[in-house]
User: Fold this.
Amino acid sequence: MLMILRFFKRHVKIGAMFILLSLGCQPKHPLSPILLGVTAENAMVVSARKEASAIGLSVMARGGNAFDAMFATELALAVVYPYAGNLGGGGFMVYRLADGSTGSLDYREMAPSAAHRDMFLDRSGNHDTAKSTVGGLAIGVPGTIKGIFAAQKKFGLLSVEALMNPVIELAEKGYVVTQKQSDRLAQYREIIRQTTGTQTLYTRDINPGDTIKNLALAQTLRRLRDQGQEAFYQGDMAEHMSTYIQAKGGVIQSEDFEHYKVHWRDPVSFQYEDLTITSMGPPSSGGICLGQIMGMLEPYDFDDLDHNNALYIQLLTEAERRAYADRSHFLGDPDFVSIPTEQLLSRAYLEQKMASFDPKRATASEHIAHGPLIGHESDETTHYSIVDPFGNAISVTTTINGAYGSKLFDPELGFFYNNEMDDFSAKPGTPNMFGLIGGTANAIAPGKRMLSSMTPTIVTKQGELWQVLGSPGGSTIITTVLQIILNTHHFNMGMQQAVNQPRMHHQWLPDLIQFESEGFEQKLLDSLEQKGYKTIQKEYQIIGKVDAIMRHSTGILEAGADPRGDDTALGF
Ligand code: DON
Assistant:
């Protein structure tokens, strides 16, 4: 009976045309994936830069585990990938231990104690976006150092000294600049110079092939190695940072550093067919939003859909817009607002949300609202994935928000500060830098964490580790992660193949399907436009930059290192 209902539900929803297609059809997607990615038998690190992957892997070759590798990889990214790697930002880590237990760590930035709801509004009450994105006021209290020290202390095997020495050496000896890196630095050089107010390491002319040594950062790391994370959050380093940030228009005080805490939180976990998906809960919207979208998609039959065809794009779009409408209303820091996670993920609620989907025409976002829920009152980030020889897996997304964060570089300490305050809803109903509209659940308050879209995720299949994945990309992170899981699960792609595929995105408002510039034909966009969808395909547009690992049924680890960047997988 359940089968019949399920069949009926699936096919009635998509419509008569689809019934004809599905009757008597065999699944058209290949039965075994092609392995295009780097493979390994025991351990793997996939990150935005080869130097960071190499340092993480060498830690595991010396007997360290995934948490030791996380510590070293994250710091190495701060050296070689200042675009997003950081000491001045924050992040989220989702883990699965070899025994199958899971957990997550929130080391998201926090609003300073002097922050207030209207701090980014001008005299006319309008959101002054320059203030929430550039310079001292845009900075949230950084969490990265406390985060990686906490993770390593709880689960790591090696000494902090052994993990930090190769990173310090990397900062001292330098790394070689890639073409992509030099292009990005050129693009942001002037604004970094204006914000920092002086010529610094990253404002001089930097060309591909140049070697960059960051001696100030090496010195900061040496102090952290010798004195521990307290050296960052207390004493003269915290004094220096607060004085410097205040001189640049910010309000962070040294006590804000002292009061910063990381939180071990229960991850969000949900079923999708035979998969168990474990992802980040609030203050990230990633896990809940991904769970809502996948819950809305599950009743449909993907065997009869061609990858990225019009009906497939429609289905994703309609589920995505409905989930992002809820994101905007319900989600914020769980220590400040109550979040009805269970109801948001309930199948009955999600089915009712999708009931208005009509495959013949677009649902306008203006007709989609959040809830109602019964009883409820109302460029740049980086991701890395690690699997260790012990069978532990960790998925980490870390960020300073925009490219080079607030553009404020600290020449004395050798890193950029974040501009994470822009992830708050500065004024309900007005978009942030990712075009996301927020509500009062994500309003600014002292000590509160800003809502994130970061979606570090681990997928198990029939109880076995299957995937470790995540991405940067602001609001597009969630839909990027979604597409990788669908590509692998429904279209039987290997991980590298799944990562290489072109991607699309919809986030409720603006009511637009965004497409990457490569890989989608005009006639597909035209056919969607005819059904009332608005589409946009900008030149050079990429959506997400995934670094993922898939564990095949043979036990082989296969990487998906995104060719959209300099991302590199290494394993043994
Ligand atoms: O936490 C968030 O959702 C954002 N601060 C992430 C920023 C990001 O991914 C920028 N990268 N392109």
